[in-house]
Amino acid sequence: MESHTHEMMVSIVAAISAGVMLIAISRRIQISAIVLLLLGGIVLGPEVLNVVKPSTFGDGLGLIVSLAVGLILFEGGLTLDIKGYRSASSVIKRLLSVGVLTTWFGTFLLIRLLFPEIRMADGLLAAALVIVTGPTVIAPLLKRIKIKENLHNILHWEGVLIDPLGVFIVIMCFEWIVWQSGGLALGRFTLRFVEGLGIGLLGGFGIYELFKRKLIPDDMLNVSALALAVLVFGVAEFFLAESGLLAITVAGLVLGAKRPIELKQLRSFKAEITDLMIGMLFILLAARLEFANFKEFGFRGALLVLGVMLLIRPLNVLCSTVGLGMNWRDQAFLSWVAPRGIVAASMASFLTIRLQGEYGGESTAPVFLETFTYSVIVSTVLIQGFTAGPLAALLKLRRPAPTGWMIIGAHPLGRSLAGFIRDSAGLPVLLIDSNAKAVREAQANGFTALNVDAREADVLESRIALQGIGNLIALTDNEDLNALLCNRWIDALGRDHVFRWNPVAHESEQDKASPGAIVWPRLPKPSLLSAELTRGEASLGTLVGPPPKGGNQITVLAMTDGKVLQLRHGKGDDALGGDKVRTLTLRREADYLLRSLRPELVTRLEVTNIDELFRHLVNLVVQLYPKVSREDTVAELLERERSFPTALGHGIAVPHAYCHALESRVCVVVQLPNGVDFHAPDDEVVKLAFLLLSPSGDPEGHLATMAEIARLVSDPGTRERLMAAGGALEILPIIQNFNPMQGSQAEAKGR
């Protein structure tokens, strides 16, 4: 008994660890996971290493398979987009109706022809198992070969939507075998269908209501959803065996259709659980396969598999596309590509285990069922999977290399960049933002825009691929999020095709090592720059000809020669040349200091030390901007003052800091008639100070404002007038009317 338990423990540990590892490897090298899982299961099984021993589980293996398949179908229900079927082309709808029947009955006739000893019911069940293709094998294939849009759409939606149909037909055939009567089988199937559908609907709506009413703690949503899905499956099975699969699938469909706000988090968690289930399941199931069964399947079996691939699938496609105007190249490709996957294998092994219990040792049908299904899976995945790319190239069905751009951020800056890419470079552009208002404004301006979370790369990848998107620029205010987005998309787009905004003031060694080239590091946050564009404080322009060298107020953002788009990273970039080059430039208007001033922030204080001064000045700011942290700001100013004294000499100081709570620059002007010791280099006490606070992520505006202050106070006459002025009504006009050129000339004459 102890030895048996030990073997069971070793089997389950090896199945889980090897399964997940092989799925990870398959995604890294971009091949179908089923290839490595089948090989891994066979090698670890009794036929080779004898590490995984499915027989140790006894009847429990059927329960494990049943529950795992249920969770896989539940996750499939969560991700199934009901709108996808409504918007599907006529070809997809025919593949799901006429095509399904053609595959089912065509395969059945081949089985009857080549294996006459197989009973009708068993033949129909075997034929039903190869109806499905499945997204788990189609998605990696489509990602790798990159075929044109209509074929991609057809194969994707066929794979997504055909699984539930195939499962329903398989269950009906199984009913026929178990009850040995067509009428009784149909009645039992109808009863099971109604019961599974009813419990699934109740379970799905029940889970949704629990989420909606916040009856489950946020930190337990994922595990609770998993437990409730298992409960739905168990309740359905308790009342009527084999109804659990339908119930759990329907529950997932309901939850996916209702789209609770927790769905994104739930999908991510369920996808991880599904990977775990698929990996474990396939290792266990593949370990059951015996070489002797495939040898006995022999020449007749090879003909049957070839018939499914070379006769039935083309007939399916022909019947589904006749009269729809599809050209022969598209038909030929669809006729060749139909790899079977996870659901077919899982259902085959699950039903084989059940039928072995029904038949005992009196029939070879269960062995035929499993051997045939796995033979079709291996043949279609290996042969079609590795030849689909060359066939697409031969038939000239590949999409051209994607050159379009995806911009994360539909704010005014993002929309302006999108307009330049579309109009000047002639490239496709897609705006993505979680802000619905920004997306609506982008759509109103004629742009393609999606109100989705750009972090969901797996969900978005097929949609962006169809629009020719091959580059990404992340323009959110959060530099960490920008780096994360580049990391999420680097596998799909490539390291040289992801870009991100990151302020140079915050750039760290980790930022430099993160994926995604940093663009416009001297510019403020995209939202702040967008606000400047909206207020007219900044403007974008398109220049034709050699790009300008720039200046204090001009920044080159992007260039194009009509073929490619080049974003400027920073100093030392290789610029495009030629008279036909178009350049997108940003001009940020002057008067940085004036835009930072308010009458309420011009004051006169009689204080004796820096600490007291900073507290008074920050209190003035907090009265106008309550979100500013008084203690943190004072502490940062004092720390900066100790490290880098801000006295300029001649009785002037410019203490300054960045503040996350601000959305625009703020400058406080203070007269200090008694003087405050700032330890100035000329030993003069400070009698006029400018306290500058800038939003984090606006280093250019911060430095430009400080430069304006320095130019202002460099004129002796202006300094004296500011120190002698009688409050804000006199100080603000002095600053407003200051002319740097006149000031310089006056200073020169004074010398």
Question: What's the layout of helices and strands?
Answer:
Elements: H1 2-29, H2 33-44, H3 60-79, H4 82-86, H5 90-95, H6 98-114, H7 120-129, H8 135-145, H9 149-179, H10 182-212, H11 221-239, H12 244-258, H13 263-288, H14 291-321, H15 328-336, H16 342-359, H17 365-394, E1 404-408, H18 412-423, E2 429-432, H19 436-444, E3 448-450, H20 457-465, E4 469-474, H21 479-493, E5 498-501, H22 509-513, E6 517-519, H23 526-535, E7 538-544, E8 554-560, E9 565-567, E10 582-588, H24 592-596, E11 602-604, H25 610-624, H26 630-643, E12 647-649, E13 652-653, E14 656-659, E15 666-676, E16 686-695, H27 699-713, H28 716-724, H29 728-736, H30 740-750
Parallel strand pairs: 1-2, 1-4, 2-3, 4-5, 5-6, 11-15, 13-16, 14-16
Antiparallel strand pairs: 7-10, 8-9, 8-10, 12-13, 15-16
